[in-house]
Model the fold of this input.
Amino acid sequence: MRTQVAIVGAGPSGLLLGQLLHKAGIDAVIVERVTGDYVLGRIRAGILEQVCIDLMDEAGVGARMHKEGLIHGGIEMLFDGKRHRVDMNKLTGGKNVMVYGQTELTRDLMDARAAAGLTTVYEAQNVAVHDFDSTKPWVTYEKDGQQHRIDCDFIAGCDGFHGVCRASAPRSAIKEYEKVYPFGWLGLLSDTPPVNDELIYVNSPRGFALCSQRSKTRSRYYLQVPLTDHVEDWSDDAFWQELKLRLDEEARAKLVTGPSLEKSIAPLRSFVTEPLRFGRMFLAGDAGHIVPPTGAKGLNLAATDVKYLFDAIVEFYKDKSEAGIDDYSRKCLARIWRAERFSWWFTQLMHRFPDDGPITAKFQSAELDYLMNSEAGLKTIAENYVGLPLDFGG
Ligand code: APR
Ligand code: PHB
Done:
């Protein structure tokens, strides 16, 4: 088989890239290791920045998102038993975020791909990337016991943190930066109305908590837990009880509990690969970087990588220029490190670290107090949370 762009991975990055390329008349094939249902079964964050919303529109798949997504102009921060609101809309001159689950976004992209009759090979085994240091790269995979080959101009490595593309880059050409946090997030999804209209980020003496949501009737909550905890040991009751202990009086009284639809523990990691381009192979999304979820940047960063990659590929075909692909890594990494920094900073501000003594809790409390009472402090949180503009810093 021959295509222009072979995309490895049908998560949000691969699907979004595929859809944008299709709209631009560029041919792409996606190879994915697991089934579509498996991809949709992974519960991830659900906060879209404006740049991500715009990209879904550009890809022509924004209709349901605009109908069902909830616009949020602020977040709340709870510490020392008191809640404070960050009025992001006012602080950023009118910017908001949208609550729309990654699962829904992925489903919209999958449906559009299927409706357009585009090729996605699910359950592709032993995917391998070849000759990406030449102008004739190729991808192989096995399916139903048969070996297949895709010849292409470019390989897009959209295959997540554990994918094959980054692992295939020459070790001498790659540098990886990593920080693993000494705790995880235990998440619970339930068909209960959210405790609050807006998200509540909680710094409590018992650890971090987050009250998030998917819709007016579906909530998503998180608790900071030790890495040694197992999800099987957390009954729904134990989860709700612990959450209540981390909330303020008003939220505790208002919290509606119910059976979990999903419960899982996710580790927290900061990770960046440099560079993101290896000849004719490009890494995008989780394949190139991971952020801890505290700032909800993972999906948004993936989307902006895809935007930069898409623009570069279009420039290559339409203008016969390699300037865009040459600049891909630099451009992405500038944005990635800004979001990495914010996610790391917000994580260390809101969590209790096992080795921290009482003085660190006092530092956190004083910093939060400063941030909530300073226009500059509030703006710092707001402008990062809604997402820095695509052209920030050039
Ligand atoms: N061959 C083919 N496909 C693969 C391979 C492989 N060897 N390895 C992984 N994949 C697939 C995975 O099964 C997955 O469906 O690549 C896809 C990668 O998807 P994601 O992990 O969701 O990564 P990405 O599309 O970049 O999305 C980033 O996901 O983790 C969140 O916070 C992150 O929201 C962000 C988003
Ligand atoms: C979520 O809704 O899953 C979510 C929201 C905000 C975050 C992280 C996760 O910062």
